[in-house]
């Protein structure tokens, strides 16, 4: 019996396929969220390595936020990833929202990263 992909996996694959076509060698800013935390990675798909990452589980971020699963925590993570991307020498990225809609925590993280200096 053939494996059937669920809606979430198909949506994630569609978003990534479109991003890779539009990336032009720019790193991908990939977001993952769970009920209690939010994670973000800056990935260079050409070399297949992670350039920078941040999440609400990092010690510095964990100390500054009360709960990792809300918009305030996403804003802090967005600012931190922007700082770490600058340290890695990256300014232009492609935003990969994965299978999540651009709303709530994902939107707050993206706007905070833009305010921190990332361009996408």
Q: What count of helical segments does DSSP give?
A: 4
Sequence of secondary-structure elements: HEEEHHEH
Q: Write out the strand line-up for the largest beta sheet, numbering strands in chain order.
A: 3-2-1-4
What characterizes the major β-sheet?
4 strands, mixed
Classification by helices and strands: alpha+beta
Give the radius of gyration: 14 Å
β-strand percent reads 15-25%
Which CATH C-level class is it? Answer: Alpha Beta
The third-level CATH topology is Nucleotidyltransferase, domain 5
User: Mean of the pLDDT scores?
Assistant: 93
List the domain count as a whole number. 1
Q: Low-confidence parts, pLDDT < 50 over ≥5 residues?
A: none
Instruction: Give the CA-based shape.
Output: globular
Number of strands: 4
State the distance separating the first and last CA atoms: 41 Å
Helix content: 40-55%
Based on the structure, what is the oligomeric state of the protein chains?
single chain
The CATH architecture comes to 2-Layer Sandwich
What is this structure's SSE topology?
Blueprint: H1 7-22, E1 28-33, E2 38-44, E3 49-55, H2 59-64, H3 71-87, E4 94-96, H4 105-115
Parallel strand pairs: 1-4
Antiparallel strand pairs: 1-2, 2-3
Helix pairs in contact: 3-4
Describe the fold and architecture:
The longest helix is centred in the middle third of the chain and has 17 residues, at 71-87. A hairpin with a 4-residue loop joins strand 2 and strand 3 (49-55). This protein is of the alpha+beta class. Helices cover 42% and strands 19% of the residues. The chain has a four-stranded mixed β-sheet with strand order 3-2-1-4. The chain has four helices and four strands; from the N terminus they run H-E-E-E-H-H-E-H. The model has no long low-confidence stretch (mean pLDDT 93).
